[in-house]
Each structure stands twice: as structure tokens, then as C-alpha cells.
């Protein structure tokens, strides 16, 4: 009877998984942290989505990239984090198909976030290093096409990685009551981490070098500028401020994801519910939660938009035309 009580499915003595045991205090701490983070992540990113979608002044190529990033972060807070809480339970009772679909959605959101960061880095690179051609090269339509293509690629790539698992859910489970998948790790690390992160770092190093040189040039000629020159300087300053703000977003992303992938490939215990797995997953959830917090501190338009949303002023006629910049 004691052995049956420790099984996920006591009626299946020979094929049922044994229940994992956790300290009650540790389990409650994980539940509280992840539940709070899930609610906060979904709520804040929903505010970003409503802000950029509703107010026409915010319909810019750069903000469209932030919108795409907010969508992926919103999905993390709404679906990925809550289902991860269920994975920490002693047994998985939702079935093999739900298990695979959870990982499928997780992979899509992670890959979409990485690709969005690459697009943001390219956007800032062109804006700072080739500002004269920025309006013609980075257009609204081109950014929309790139965002759609990258989301489609994220779905396709996730499907390819989980193809065997989707065709036959649960094929890698060793017993009833667990949620296990199998993917080709080396390919994923190269395509989803090494190449994109290297691209992001190279582009932002170049942006930083050019921004510093432009700042020095503006300081040396600031006393002799004409009115037309002053407008040009103002535009350059605004572009560099945008690059700095987005640089903070990219830096936080790199810190969270680099630690996540380092922990993933470290060879340590990465089974569901292990301290290593909980910590690495927490980094991904933390990044999705921090992005809108960064916007709140760095972008005045976001703070003003949130105020209009919370006070329901966006429900008034022509509220989309309100000046939020």
C-alpha cells in the first residue's frame, strides 16, 4: 500500500512513474514566484501590445519590433509559465499531447524572442550607421514582412525539432505520469543561440562605436551649427537615445539567455523540477517580465499610454490620435 501511494497511477503498478518529492517550503516558494511572475508578465506585455497597436503615433518600424517582442513575452506569461508550474507537480496528468504542445509553444516563443532581438539590432545598426538611408531601407511594410517570416520560421523550426514527438506524443516517456521530449540539442544551440547572439553582439558593438564617434563630433561642432544643422543634430540624438534604450533591452536579453543556454549545455541535472532546470527556466520567464518594466523606465510614451489605458480614455472617440510622444 505504501508503494502504491507513491505511484502516479496506483492502478498501473508496473508502468506508473513514482511521485517526485519536494520540501513543502521550496514547493510553495516556487509556486508563489512563478505565479506572480506569470500574472505580471502577461499584464505588462498586454499593456505594451495595446499601446503600440492603438496609438497611431507609435506605428513606427522600431515599435513594430517591440510589439512583436511583446507578443512573444505575453505568450510566455499567459501559457508557458503556468504550464511550467504544472510540470513541477509530482506527476503529469494532462496527457502526452498537452505535454508536447507545451514544449512546442515554448520553443516558438523562445525562438521568436531571439529573432526579434536580431531584428531590433539590425534596425538600430541601420539607424545609427546609415541614417540617410534608414527611412528607405527600414520601412513599415518591410518590417511587417520580416516579423511575419520570422514567426513562421519559429513555428516551422519548432515543428522540425519536435517532429517525432508531435507524430507520436509520449514516445520518449519511460513510464506513465511524466512529460519528456527529445530534440537535437547541438543544432538548436547553433541556430538559436550561437549565430543569433553573435550577430546581435557584432551589430551592437558597431552601433556603440559609431554612436561614440558621432557624439564626439557633435560636441566639437556644437558651437558653430546652423538652424538646419541643429535639426540634424537633434535627429541624431534621438536615434542614439533609441539605440541606448534598446541596448538596455538587448543587454538584459543576452544576460538571461546566455545564462540559460550555458546552464542547458553544462551537463548538469536538467530534469523537470531539478534546481538547475527551475533556475534556467526562471531566467527565460524573468526576461519576458523585465522587458515591459524597462520600457516603463526608459520610454515616456509607454508611461503615458498606460495612464490612458488604465483610465479608459482609449475608449473615447479618436483616442488613437492622442499625442503620446
UniProtKB/TrEMBL annotation:
Keywords: Cell membrane, G-protein coupled receptor, Membrane, Receptor, Transducer, Transmembrane, Transmembrane helix. It is a multi-pass membrane protein. Its main location: membrane. Residues 44-295 form the G-protein coupled receptors family 1 profile domain. It is found in: Cell membrane. It holds the Pfam family 7tm_1. Coiled coil: none annotated. It comes from the Eukaryota. GO terms for molecular function: trace-amine receptor activity. The chain crosses the membrane at residues 28-52, 64-88, 100-122, 143-163, 183-209, 246-266, 278-298. GO terms for cellular component: plasma membrane. Belongs to the G-protein coupled receptor 1 family. This is Trace amine-associated receptor 13c-like. It comes from Mastacembelus armatus (zig-zag eel). The lineage of its organism: Eukaryota, Metazoa, Chordata, Craniata, Vertebrata.
Amino acid at each position: 500500500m505504501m508503494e502504491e501511494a507513491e505511484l502516479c497511477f496506483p492502478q498501473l503498478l508496473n508502468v506508473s512513474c513514482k511521485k517526485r518529492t519536494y520540501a513543502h517550503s521550496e514547493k510553495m516558494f516556487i509556486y508563489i514566484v512563478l505565479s506572480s511572475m506569470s500574472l505580471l508578465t502577461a499584464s505588462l506585455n498586454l499593456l505594451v501590445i495595446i499601446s503600440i497597436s492603438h496609438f497611431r503615433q507609435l506605428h513606427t518600424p522600431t515599435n513594430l519590433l517591440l510589439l512583436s517582442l511583446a507578443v512573444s513575452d505575453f505568450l510566455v506569461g499567459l501559457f508557458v509559465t503556468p504550464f511550467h508550474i504544472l510540470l513541477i507537480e509530482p506527476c503529469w496528468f494532462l496527457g502526452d499531447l498537452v505535454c508536447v504542445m507545451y514544449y512546442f509553444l515554448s520553443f516558438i516563443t523562445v525562438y521568436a524572442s531571439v529573432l526579434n532581438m536580431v531584428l531590433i539590432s539590425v534596425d538600430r545598426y541601420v539607424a545609427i550607421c546609415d541614417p540617410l538611408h534608414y527611412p528607405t531601407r527600414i520601412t513599415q511594410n518591410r518590417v511587417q514582412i520580416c516579423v511575419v517570416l520570422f514567426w513562421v520560421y519559429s513555428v516551422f523550426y519548432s515543428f522540425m525539432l519536435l517532429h517525432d514527438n508531435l507524430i507520436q506524443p509520449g514516445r520518449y516517456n519511460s513510464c506513465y505520469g511524466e512529460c519528456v521530449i527529445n530534440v537535437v540539442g547541438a543544432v538548436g544551440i547553433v541556430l538559436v543561440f550561437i549565430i543569433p547572439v553573435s550577430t546581435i553582439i557584432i551589430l551592437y558593438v558597431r552601433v556603440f562605436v559609431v554612436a561614440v564617434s558621432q557624439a564626439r563630433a557633435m560636441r566639437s561642432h556644437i558651437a558653430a551649427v546652423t538652424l538646419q544643422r541643429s535639426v540634424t543634430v537633434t535627429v541624431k540624438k534621438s536615434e542614439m537615445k533609441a539605440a541606448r534604450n534598446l541596448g538596455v533591452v538587448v543587454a538584459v536579453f543576452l544576460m538571461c539567455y546566455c545564462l540559460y543556454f550555458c546552464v542547458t549545455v553544462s551537463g548538469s541535472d536538467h530534469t523537470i523540477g531539478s534546481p538547475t532546470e527551475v533556475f534556467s527556466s526562471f531566467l527565460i520567464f524573468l526576461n519576458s517580465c523585465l522587458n515591459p518594466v524597462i520600457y516603463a523606465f526608459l520610454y515616456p510614451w509607454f508611461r503615458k499610454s498606460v495612464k490612458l489605458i488604465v483610465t479608459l480614455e482609449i475608449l473615447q472617440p479618436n483616442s488613437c490620435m492622442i499625442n503620446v510622444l
